[in-house]
Specification:
CATH architecture: 2-Layer Sandwich
Structural class: alpha+beta
Strand content: 15-25%
Largest sheet: 6 strands, antiparallel
Number of domains: 1
Distance between the termini: 14 Å
Radius of gyration: 16 Å
CATH superfamily: 7,8-Dihydro-6-hydroxymethylpterin-pyrophosphokinase HPPK
Length: 202
């Protein structure tokens, strides 16, 4: 526990996707919503991916981000679902199209299995947009099952054939654009104070 009894912030990895309406705007609004609740540290490239599941639907725009939070996992899940609701998501068809999808992929090195939440996300390795982008933003986070750095476990040799990189989002200046170069490919660190609300104490 940190000095003064405050709970230290935990690094988390989130995956965002949209395949309904103005996909870019929904991702932008999702990032803006989350930046008021979490301390956003890094954001991946934006890619277009084919949909998963049995429902025929449009392609997604996706990204992965690393943030820090003092929220417990289920409290964090409530925030993620609030971000989806703010973007107009309606849960009618399982695995159907959605304005905004926000998945909790990793919560530090913690594992958890409950009716509402499983961490790490059980399908993270099977979804190319998650697996290929994790290395760009994971920093020093580790895979719980092996203890190895996520960027070493997942570092891709370019994007999978099923993914297509698209233009970066306009981030309103609160986070630097992604740069695919250097020893930590794709990592975009927060410039100045990217933290607002709860995250301001990160």
């Amino acid at each position: 526990m940190s000095q003064g009894g405050a709970t230290p912030p935990v690094p988390v990895l989130l995956a965002l996707g949209s395949n309904l309406g103005d996909r870019r705007r929904h991702l932008e609004s999702g990032l803006d919503f989350l930046s008021r609740e979490l301390c956003v540290r890094a954001i991946s490239r934006v890619v277009e991916s084919a949909p998963w599941g049995p429902v025929e639907q449009p392609h997604f725009l996706n990204l992965v981000l690393r943030a820090e939070t003092r929220l417990a996992p289920l409290s964090l899940l409530n925030i993620l679902q609030a971000a989806e609701a703010a973007a107009g998501r309606v849960r009618t068809v399982p695995q159907g199209p959605r304005t905004l999808d926000v998945d909790l992929i990793f919560y530090g090195s913690r594992t958890m299995e409950s009716p509402r939440l499983v961490i790490p996300h059980p399908a993270w390795r099977e979804r190319p947009f998650v697996h290929d982008l994790v290395a760009e933003v994971a920093g020093a986070m580790v895979e719980p099952s092996s203890g190895r750095l996520l960027r070493d476990v997942t570092r891709p040799h370019g994007l999978s054939n099923s993914l297509r990189e698209v233009e970066p989002l306009e981030t309103s200046g609160w986070i630097e654009p992604t740069a695919w170069e250097g020893p930590s490919p794709g990592e975009a660190l927060a410039s100045g104070s990217a933290c607002r609300g709860e995250a301001s104490s990160c």
